[in-house]
Structures are given as structure tokens and as C-alpha cells.
Write a structure and sequence with these properties.
The protein has 280 residues and is of the alpha/beta class. The protein has one domain: NADP-dependent oxidoreductase domain (TIM Barrel, Alpha-Beta Barrel), CATH 3.20.20. Helix content is 36%, strand content 15%. The longest helix is centred in the middle third of the chain and has 15 residues, at 89-103. α1 crosses α2, α1 packs parallel to α9 (242-250) and α3 crosses α4. The structure holds NADP nicotinamide-adenine-dinucleotide phosphate (NAP).
Length: 280
């Protein structure tokens, strides 16, 4: 299998354009082994960016990640997120310490503000910068930020240190193509596309059947290949079944043709005007 395609963070570090999500992992202890195995298989296949959050299973997903990366921490780029209710200067510091313990690691590669809350953005950014200086996180970023939030962020003294904006993006949720994606692309800030198969529903979409058939692929693979069709977008599907992990990795080898893209635009029309950012 060829090496996985990468994109570049603003710091210059390369990360795979296809990672692994973990929402709903860690909820049920009887599934722990299967979830760990799925993430380990994904790492074996090159999907070495793993996205998690303190929110997922109230820390349970971070514990699954800890077991998945045991003995191979250096191979993996771990992304975790702090809740807006913990986004104060001291709240971020304590939340990060708790995540580090659950993840059984000394450092989080990329730490995101999960969504904006009532804490001033400047305070959260200061807290992120302090964590970076202390070696607890390597980089920081944001999630669920619309264009005006990004403008506000970049106007802050350390705001330009942001490494990504993780947002909802898939064939059925194309609103950000109108302004947020071009805005980020101009500034070379990658988008991290969450729910790239719309929590599984695009995997059974009959609208994707014809394109999928032409490529001998599954609808989920077409949805993923489409999401990653341009540089600067990182997709983070969650898969706990090994066949889904393999399917997702193989989506990187699909080259959608101009004809495919035209057909997908007809079936899933792009936005014609600014759309408010959607969240799941
Ligand atoms: N920042 C945020 O606010 C935010 C919000 C939502 C999600 N996220 C992150 O983004 C990740 C992905 O989003 P998501 O979990 O909401 O949805 P998703 O990745 O679009 O969909 C996950 C669902 O699709 C199924 N699936 C995955 N690959 C498949 C394939 N090849 N064929 C058929 N079914 C497949 C999975 O099944 P199995 O598990 O049974 O394999 C699971 O039920 C999350 O896990 C989380 O890390 C972030």
C-alpha cells in the first residue's frame, strides 16, 4: 500500500490527510478491545492522526486511545479537545492534565477548543500558549469556528499560532465551501473535516451508488475521497469495525474524475451564498 498522503500544518509539520475519530468509543467496556484493535489497525495502515476529546465518553475515548497507542506513541499524532466550560486559564491547564493522565502520555500533539463558549478567546489562547511553553501540548487549534470567529482569533497577539479548525464537512454539509474553506486556504490553515460520512448515513446513500459502482468502491469511500479531494482538508472518520477501517484507508487511492465531481455537485449542490456554520 502506498504511503499515506500528507498535508502541512502552518508550523510546517506534515500530518496524514486521513485520520481516525473516536466519538462514541469508550462508552461500553465490553467493546474496549474491539475499539483498541480498530485504532491499532488504522495506525498500521498509516492513519496515524487520532482525534479524541475530553467530552467523548467523559474521558473514556481518551483511555481507548491510550491503549491503542501503547508502545507506539511516537508513531501517532494525538488530537484532543478541551470543553468550552473548561476554557479559562486555569480550567484549560487542569483539563489538559486530566487528558494527559487518561491518554498516558506526556504531551498532546494538537489541543483544540471544542467550540466557543463564554470564556474570552484571548484567555483560552493564553492558556494554550502557556501549555505549549510548558511542553504539555505541541500545537493548538480550534473547532466549530465560523469565519468571523477565525477573524477574531487571528486578530489576537498569538492567534496566528492556530494550526487547524475542525468543522463539520461532508457531501451533504457543504456550507463552508462558500467562505470558511477559502478563508482558511488563503492562510494555509488546514480544515479538519469531522463526520465525513455523516455519522454513517452517507455509507448507505443510494445517491452515491453510481459513482461508487464506477470505481468498484463503497459509498463511504466515495464520500471520503470527495472530502479529501483538495489539499488542506484532513478527514477523521470514526470506525470501530476492521472492515470499515480498511475501507476508509483504501478511499485515499480513489481519484474522482471531473465527471464524478460534476455528478456529485448535481446530487449534493454546493452553497450559493454564505451559510451559518453547522455543528453536530
Ligand atoms: N469537533 C467536533 O465538534 C466533532 C463533532 C463530531 C465528530 N468529531 C470527530 O470526528 C470524528 C468522525 O465523526 P463522527 O464519528 O461523528 O462520524 P463519521 O466518521 O462520519 O461516521 C462514523 C460512523 O460511520 C461508520 N463508518 C465509518 N466508516 C465506514 C465505512 N467505511 N463504511 C460504512 N460505515 C462506516 C462507523 O461505523 P463503525 O464505528 O461501526 O465502524 C460509525 O457508525 C468523531 O469520531 C470525532 O472524533 C468532532
Amino acid at each position: 500500500m502506498p504511503a499515506i498522503r500528507t498535508t502541512t500544518l502552518p508550523t510546517g509539520e506534515a500530518v496524514p490527510v486521513l485520520g481516525q475519530g473516536t466519538w462514541y468509543m469508550g462508552e461500553d467496556s465490553s467493546r474496549h478491545g474491539e475499539e483498541v484493535a480498530a485504532l491499532r489497525l488504522g495506525i498500521d495502515l498509516g492513519m496515524t492522526l487520532i482525534d479524541t476529546a475530553e467530552m467523548y465518553a467523559s474521558g473514556g475515548a481518551e483511555r481507548v486511545v491510550a491503549d491503542a497507542v501503547a508502545g507506539r506513541r511516537d508513531e501517532v499524532f494525538i488530537v484532543s479537545k478541551v470543553l468550552p466550560s473548561n476554557a479559562s486559564r486555569h480550567g484549560v491547564e487542569s483539563a489538559c492534565e486530566r487528558s494527559l493522565v487518561r491518554l498516558k502520555t506526556d504531551v498532546i500533539d494538537l489541543y483544540l477548543l471544542h467550540w466557543r463558549g463564554s470564556v474570552a478567546l484571548s484567555e483560552t489562547v493564553e492558556a494554550f500558549e502557556a501549555l505549549k511553553a510548558a511542553g504539555k501540548i505541541r500545537h493548538w487549534g480550534v473547532s466549530n469556528f465560523d469565519t468571523d470567529d477565525m477573524e477574531e482569533l487571528l486578530a489576537l497577539p498569538a492567534g496566528s499560532a492556530v494550526q487547524t479548525n475542525q468543522v463539520l464537512y461532508n457531501l451533504g454539509r457543504r456550507g463552508i465551501e462558500h467562505d470558511l474553506i477559502p478563508w482558511c486556504r488563503t492562510r494555509r490553515i488546514p480544515i479538519m473535516a469531522y463526520s465525513p460520512v455523516e455519522q454513517g448515513s452517507l455509507a448507505t446513500s443510494s445517491r452515491l451508488a453510481d459513482v461508487a459502482r464506477r470505481h468498484g468502491a463503497s459509498p463511504a469511500q466515495i464520500a471520503l475521497a470527495w472530502t479529501m479531494r483538495h489539499d488542506g482538508v484532513i478527514a477523521i472518520p470514526k470506525a470501530s469495525r476492521p472492515e470499515h477501517v480498511r475501507d476508509n484507508r483504501a478511499a485515499l487511492d480513489i481519484d474522482l474524475t471531473a465527471e464524478d465531481l460534476t455528478e456529485l455537485d448535481r446530487l449534493f449542490p454546493p452553497p450559493r451564498s454564505k451559510q451559518p456554520l453547522e455543528m453536530i
